[in-house]
């Protein structure tokens, strides 16, 4: 007895489900063949019947003697179930459709005669302006893509401007945000344009596989996996399917479709890769440069060796007898500490203030300055200038340091009325230098200092002139305030120092400094002197000359200053400027804040009240080093030191004693040989301002333009040249409307019912029951 067959008269564009032998292609539509589940389902060929005529009613052909309650049909592969065959005929049809279509859903019965949207005529589809082999372009997506490419560069420039002069974190953040936003938008636009390639290739795979003479079509699981999205993984699956499936081979389909569909999938993968890489590529085309800048608002307190400790002062006191000896002329050897620190100066008003550069040892927790007064300072191998930066546990490199330190400045005046105030020789061959009160008042006034009462009285000639000595003329003591005698010892430059303040008030030291220059005129052909001696000197070459005399009165101040020093990470420590004249570090700008902890138990202020032993030793050390460069091999010969007091150069280059030249030389000597010894092992609180690393971003214009042009070209090509489906099948995608066009409601519902799919069933169970159901595209 032949098997019963359910023959459907539904003629729709839908999915055809079958077992093994599909119906012979009759038209470019999906043909639906329903089936029921029997107790023991077997695979049998399904005889092909002629297509039903319009307005016909579904018929069931059953041979005589067959039990209608259990009809055996063709079940999907791998699925077996028991079900009663549904009857697709309506026992009470309510209306006939004039256009000859058998009603098969509620939607079909909703078509009215009143011109509703469901009864509108089908409009002609747009065409591709370049070739009929491609789908009509989606101009909205193309225009959007072009617009995004055009505004990409200006948008990136906005983020580059936002990133200007920011820290490296915020610059990178701004650039990353800009490149990320622009790259995401361009990538999303590329994916939207490329999506049609994958959709076309997926549906083409179904059409190619459905065109096989044997075992045509795909299982629902295979097609669902290939159409679940437009990702690279799905595209790779489609590409693999086209390699593995028999129906997609070129030899199987060359008679009706010879296009390289795998290349379309590969182009989609290329666009996916480009879209995913765009943020990274754009980020590489924005160059970020950094620069180190100093900032003066956020600081940490640090302790450094900038003062003298009690033990330093004790050692200095022990050295006092040595340096107060009138003949010994002892000096401190800098070789015991390494090279002496470099002297530097910065302007303050009309003055130049000189300082000793900080040594690397002063930045070390257990280091010291030169004022330790020891031959080998503990843990110090070289506290002088070093070619490598100092490293410290407390003071980091790459910071600005501010702390109080001692500085020196000086004013000088040439001795006026030299005929009366500079006596070349007395009866005991002593040279006398007298300081007029008016000149001394002028010196103090230049520093805005009050004239000391100790000097505001006539000079005492009894103490000023050596015993049993007589002057060549009578000296009026009333206009004079000081008088000093210099022995006829052949020294070309001599000094007299008189301390006016030994630091008792805590504000520093004040010292009167007299300098006397005596030179043989035979070696100063360009020399100009205040006065010449009366006696002639017989030289070794048989010539005769005289001794020239020049002198100046000076006032030198040693005061505390706040100096800014840069502790570099790549070079030596260098002072950069004077902050203010003070003994304690305070805010120089509004808004300064301590970002660290406050140090307690450490001195914060420089105070000179107890430093006088160190000052005396250091002062005499500097003067003695000046005097030692005096060319005493012959009387009153020029030396490099004395020539530096003038504006000339060379052995015979002395011109005349110039106040500015002497001040510069003397202060440089004091900054090298005096000021370093006012800082030993005593700690003082300073401030450390860490550097700020600021960044700027710059777009590499040419590479950026090239990339944007390529993105534009790839997107436009993807939007215009979407291949049409084989055999004139209209365009299909992965959206709901394509599934509505492929499946009608009763077809899907019927197969789900036969598979035992219920409304509230889990998705994994639905996939298990429907996954192996096979369908094909019917032409």
Automatic annotation (TrEMBL):
The chain crosses the membrane at residues 139-161, 173-198, 218-240, 261-282, 700-722. This is Uncharacterized protein. Residues 87-97 have a biased composition (Basic and acidic residues). Residues 34-44 have a biased composition (Low complexity). Residues 1-127 are annotated as: Disordered. Residues 98-109, 117-127 have a biased composition (Polar residues). It comes from the Eukaryota. Keywords: Membrane, Transmembrane, Transmembrane helix.
């Amino acid at each position: 007895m032949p098997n019963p067959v359910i023959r459907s008269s539904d003629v729709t564009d839908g999915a055809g489900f079958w077992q093994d032998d599909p119906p012979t292609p009759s038209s470019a539509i999906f043909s639906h063949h329903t089936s029921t589940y029997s107790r023991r389902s077997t695979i049998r060929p399904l005889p092909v019947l002629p297509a039903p005529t319009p307005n016909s009613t579904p018929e069931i052909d059953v041979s005589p003697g067959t039990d209608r309650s259990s009809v055996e049909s063709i079940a999907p592969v791998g699925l077996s179930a028991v079900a009663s065959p549904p009857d697709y005929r309506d026992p009470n049809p309510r209306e006939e459709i004039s256009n000859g279509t058998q009603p098969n859903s509620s939607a079909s019965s909703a078509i009215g005669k009143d011109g509703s949207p469901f009864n509108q005529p089908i409009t002609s589809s747009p065409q591709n302006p370049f070739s009929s082999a491609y789908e009509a372009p989606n101009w909205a997506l193309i225009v959007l893509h072009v617009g995004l490419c055009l505004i990409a560069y200006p948008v990136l420039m906005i983020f580059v401007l936002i990133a200007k002069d920011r820290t490296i974190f915020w610059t990178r953040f701004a650039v990353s945000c800009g490149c990320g936003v622009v790259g995401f938008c361009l990538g999303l636009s590329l994916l939207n344009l490329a999506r049609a390639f994958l959709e076309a290739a997926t549906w083409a795979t179904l059409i190619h596989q459905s065109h096989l003479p044997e075992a045509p079509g795909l299982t629902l699981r295979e097609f669902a996996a290939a159409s679940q999205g437009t990702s690279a993984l799905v595209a790779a699956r489609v590409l693999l399917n086209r390699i593995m499936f028999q129906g997609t081979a070129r030899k199987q389909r060359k008679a009706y479709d010879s296009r390289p569909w795998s290349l379309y999938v590969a182009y989609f993968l290329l666009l996916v890769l480009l879209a995913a890489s765009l943020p990274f590529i754009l980020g590489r085309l924005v160059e970020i440069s950094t620069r180190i800048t100093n900032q003066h608002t956020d600081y940490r307190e640090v302790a450094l060796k900038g003062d003298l400790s009690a033990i330093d002062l004790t050692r200095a006191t022990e050295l006092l007898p040595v340096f107060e000896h009138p003949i010994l002329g002892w000096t401190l050897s800098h070789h015991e500490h390494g090279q002496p620190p470099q002297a530097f100066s910065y302007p303050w008003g009309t003055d130049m203030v000189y300082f000793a550069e900080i040594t690397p040892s002063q930045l070390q927790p257990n280091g010291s300055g030169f004022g330790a007064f020891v031959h080998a300072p503990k843990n110090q191998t070289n506290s002088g200038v070093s070619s490598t930066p100092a490293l410290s546990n407390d003071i980091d490199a790459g910071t600005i340091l501010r702390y109080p330190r001692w500085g020196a400045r000086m004013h000088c005046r040439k001795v006026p009325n030299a005929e009366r105030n500079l006596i070349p020789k007395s009866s005991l061959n002593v040279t006398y230098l007298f300081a007029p009160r008016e000149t001394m008042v002028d010196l103090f006034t230049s520093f805005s200092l009050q004239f000391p009462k100790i000097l505001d009285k006539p000079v005492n000639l009894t103490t000023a002139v050596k015993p049993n000595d007589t002057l060549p003329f009578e000296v009026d003591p009333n206009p004079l305030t000081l008088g000093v005698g210099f022995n006829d010892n052949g020294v070309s430059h001599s000094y007299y120092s008189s301390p006016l303040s030994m630091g008792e008030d805590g504000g520093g030291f004040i010292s009167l400094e007299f300098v006397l220059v005596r030179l043989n005129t035979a070696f100063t052909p360009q020399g100009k002197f205040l006065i010449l001696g009366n006696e002639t000197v017989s030289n070794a070459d048989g010539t005769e000359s005289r001794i020239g005399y020049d002198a100046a009165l000076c006032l030198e101040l040693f005061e505390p200053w706040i100096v800014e020093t840069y502790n570099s990470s790549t070079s030596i420590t260098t002072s950069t400027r004077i902050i203010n004249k003070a003994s304690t570090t305070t805010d120089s700008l509004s808004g300064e804040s301590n970002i660290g902890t406050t140090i307690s138990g450490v001195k914060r202020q420089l105070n000179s009240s107890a430093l006088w032993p160190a000052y005396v030793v250091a002062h005499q050390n500097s003067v003695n080093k000046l005097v030692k460069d005096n060319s005493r091999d012959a009387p009153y010969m020029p030396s490099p030191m004395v020539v530096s007091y003038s504006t000339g150069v060379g052995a015979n280059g002395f011109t005349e004693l110039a106040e500015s030249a002497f001040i510069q030389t003397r202060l440089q000597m004091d900054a090298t040989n005096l000021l370093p010894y006012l800082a030993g092992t005593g700690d003082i609180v300073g401030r450390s301002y860490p550097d700020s690393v600021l960044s700027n971003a710059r777009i590499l214009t040419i590479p950026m333009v090239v990339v944007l042009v390529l993105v534009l070209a790839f997107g436009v090509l993807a939007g215009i040249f979407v291949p049409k489906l084989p055999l004139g099948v209209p365009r299909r995608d992965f959206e709901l409307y394509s599934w509505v066009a492929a499946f009608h409601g009763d077809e899907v519902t019927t197969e789900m019912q036969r598979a035992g799919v219920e409304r509230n069933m889990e998705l994994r169970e639905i996939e298990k029951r429907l996954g192996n159901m096979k369908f094909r595209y019917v032409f």
